[in-house]
């Protein structure tokens, strides 16, 4: 697959990825190389990566616990201390090997350590390949509030190796598929029509879906790096979705959702808003709802949860002057940005998901 040029770095795929990594390491001096992993990627992905990659330098492995709950400033402090203890400097290189938590947090830690050291992202989950691989967003959560602390900082390159997907669960594969569905409604309807008949994620289909998704996101980012206009479209489903994800993460009586599971619910609800506000076809809204409930399973949202979920939306990064801004879909491949809705409609949309 042909490499994709982003703002000032490339996304490389498959065997081509390791050839470019080898060339980069030979042509650039690095005092030390650090590989950031979590407990899962250390076990399942690191051996495969070290087998395929050629390092002339010794590498230091830094390990953190796996999970969104560890994507916070406390973990960053631990990593900054580890880097300092192990002699990292501004000529060191950080290789982030993992899902979105690792690439987001690793990029943030590298970009802020001694005012910046270089980093490379190697996403190992479907979600991180199609979402975190392009765009330069780094950061961590503030408590349960998603991605509240961070900055834009580009990696030296992104390497996508589909073999890592053999190490992830079907649940994680389904999670990543939600972000591809997002691209299907906002930029390329063929993606949605390809996915809607899935009963499981077939690896033969995944390769093309990943490449198309990266190409779409990259085209958007090149138009709007700092998310002032069209890049906001990539937040479709995320205003409510992030609030649901945060609420389920902090509630002791709820099982935490994956990012994709929460965003899938968010897209169903925000399509309902799109139907009520812009006349988006109800048939397509019902189709997505049926697919999400069948494919991801029914998530129980109770009446008592609604007020708490809506309250969490006030922390969304797209908000301005206290106004909650939604990305809605007027018709397939045509988004409306910065849409404000009444509290009544927001509750109505959540009820739409809840009811059979």
UniProtKB/TrEMBL annotation:
What GO molecular function annotations does the UniProt record carry, in alphabetical order? 3-dehydroquinate synthase activity
Origin: domain of life? Bacteria
Q: Does the keyword Zinc apply?
A: yes
Reply yes or no: does the keyword NAD apply: yes
Q: Which cofactor does it need?
A: Co(2+); NAD(+)
Q: Name the Enzyme Commission number(s) assigned to this protein.
A: 4.2.3.4
- Domain 3-dehydroquinate synthase C-terminal, which positions? 176-319
What are the residue boundaries of the 3-dehydroquinate synthase N-terminal domain, all occurrences included?
Answer: 62-174
Q: What class of enzyme is it?
A: lyase
* Pfam families noted in UniProt: DHQ_synthase (PF01761), DHQS_C (PF24621)
Q: What is the designated name of this protein?
A: 3-dehydroquinate synthase
What organism, scientifically named, is this protein from? Lutimonas vermicola
């Amino acid at each position: 697959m042909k490499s994709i040029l982003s703002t000032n770095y490339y996304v490389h795929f498959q065997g081509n990825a390791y050839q470019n990594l080898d060339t980069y390491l030979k042509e650039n001096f690095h005092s030390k190389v650090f590989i950031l992993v979590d407990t899962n990627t250390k076990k399942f992905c690191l051996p495969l990566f070290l087998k395929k990659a050629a390092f002339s330098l010794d590498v230091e492995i830094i390990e953190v616990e796996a999970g969104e709950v560890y994507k916070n400033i406390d973990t960053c402090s631990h990593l900054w201390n580890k880097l300092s203890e192990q002699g990292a400097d501004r000529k060191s290189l950080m290789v982030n090997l993992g899902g979105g938590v690792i690439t987001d947090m690793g990029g943030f830690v590298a970009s802020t350590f001694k005012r910046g050291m270089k980093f490379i992202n190697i996403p190992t989950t479907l979600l991180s390949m199609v979402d975190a691989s392009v765009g330069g967003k780094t950061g961590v959560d503030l408590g349960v509030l998603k991605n509240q602390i961070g900055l834009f900082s580009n990696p030296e390159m992104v390497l996508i190796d589909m073999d890592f997907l053999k190490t992830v669960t079907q649940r994680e594969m389904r999670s990543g598929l939600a972000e591809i569905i997002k691209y299907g409604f906002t930029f390329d309807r063929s993606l949605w029509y390809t996915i809607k008949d899935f009963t499981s994620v077939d690896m033969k289909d995944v390769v093309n879906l990943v490449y198309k998704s990266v190409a779409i996101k990259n085209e958007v980012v090149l138009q709007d790096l700092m998310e002032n206009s069209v890049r906001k479209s990539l937040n479709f489903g995320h205003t409510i979705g992030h609030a649901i994800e945060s609420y389920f993460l902090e509630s002791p009586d709820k099982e935490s959702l994956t990012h994709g599971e929460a965003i899938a619910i968010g897209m169903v609800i925000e399509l309902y808003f799109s139907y009520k506000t812009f006349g988006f076809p109800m048939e397509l809204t019902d189709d997505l709802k049926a697919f999400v409930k069948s494919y991801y399973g029914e998530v129980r949202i109770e009446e008592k949860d609604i007020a708490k979920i809506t309250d969490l939306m006030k922390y969304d990064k797209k908000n301005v002057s206290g106004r909650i801004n939604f990305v809605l879909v007027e018709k397939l491949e045509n988004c409306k940005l910065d849409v404000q809705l009444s509290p009544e409609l927001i509750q109505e949309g959540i009820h739409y998901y809840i009811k059979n």
